[in-house]
Amino acid sequence: MKNLGSIHSLLTRTAGDLGRRQFLKTSASTFAAAAAMSTLPTGLVSPARAADGTIVVGFITSMSGPVSSLGIPYDQGLKAAVAFKNQVAGKTVKLIALDDASDPTIAAVNARKLIQENNVDVIIGTAGSPGALAIATVCAETKTPLICIANANPQGEPGNWTITIPQPAPLMIAGAVAHMKQAGVKSVGYMGFADPWGDLVYNALIEATPAAGIKVTSNERYARADTSVTGQALKVFATRPDVFVAGGSGTPGALPYLALRERGYKGQFYGTPAIINPAFVKVGGSAVEGLIASTGPVVVFEQLPDSNPTKAVSKEFARALKATQPDAVPNAFSGYSFDAWILFLTAAETAIKTAAPGTAEFKLAMREALTNASEVVGSHGVYTFKPGSRYGNDERSRVLVKLEKGAWQLIS
């Protein structure tokens, strides 16, 4: 268990991924061919696995590219989780990890590779919502359960094979809007990613503000890879909102705040769990000092009362993280990976009673166990899933924090 390197090795190199990405971009037919590659048919269990009962987990994250500021903490959290526990009912768990280079196309190809070549029983991934949705489509097609660590809400059949660890945007935005209302706020400006995550935050904001008597004054968008949002910031500034909230994540999530402060905006900043990581704080600097955000309790677990059910799990997570990566500190994203592993372990304990790892029956049993998990305590909250719902969090997974002198302080 302590020899994490033997369990958690990155099987793809950045250079190889970048080369494959260039290759895949040449044509749609090329992607189709790559997506269809297979050396082991889905559901076929190898003789070795039949003998030892090893459970194989595929992990996809973004160790390179614009989403890597989130992908690296995800990787840190899963390394801590594997060190925490890597056996189920006496059976060893093998982890195979791949880098998707922040590219949804590569994320989908990686998922298919893990399923068809490595015959994984479940996938955990990835760092960005677009990539997570791409993986969900592959998992539905191959009937492989997905534990999603990005905030994504796949619909239809992909949703039937997916559970999502991060808190739903409406739950988290509602907490921020409640704080705005108490502060007498009448208008809020918005700028977010031009992708599913930006849509989720904006839609949640539109849903929560009318009852609070707050008007949303803007809906500006930008790409994750953009290096400037000057034009969008000027448009937001022109609407003169009392406060501002951004729908970004990681280091690119700091751009709107930086641009508005540079243009003299003095209003209160709000944020989502997607910006609760060290890289955001470092890049945002003084511009984001005083920002108020909703997040999971793991971010401020030492400030929680001992009666909070997540505090004990967060302590275990912090210990495992320090043991495996002494320089890392618990944050929202590493916590999501840790909780994904806890839910995997809980579901596998149930599934292994009725089916053998490496079989289609085990995958189905895993899906049933995951989508029916009840009161599973993690570092971010207490998870209860129901068929038809990707999210398992309630208000126990939400706290409000304020950034003071570069550290997050509990305010609610």
Automatic annotation (TrEMBL):
Signal peptide: none annotated. Residues 54-369 form the Leucine-binding protein domain. Keywords: Amino-acid transport, Signal, Transport. SUPFAM superfamilies: Periplasmic binding protein-like I. The keyword Transmembrane does not apply. Belongs to the leucine-binding protein family. This is ABC transporter substrate-binding protein. It comes from Rhizobium lemnae. The lineage of its organism: Bacteria, Pseudomonadati, Pseudomonadota, Alphaproteobacteria, Hyphomicrobiales.
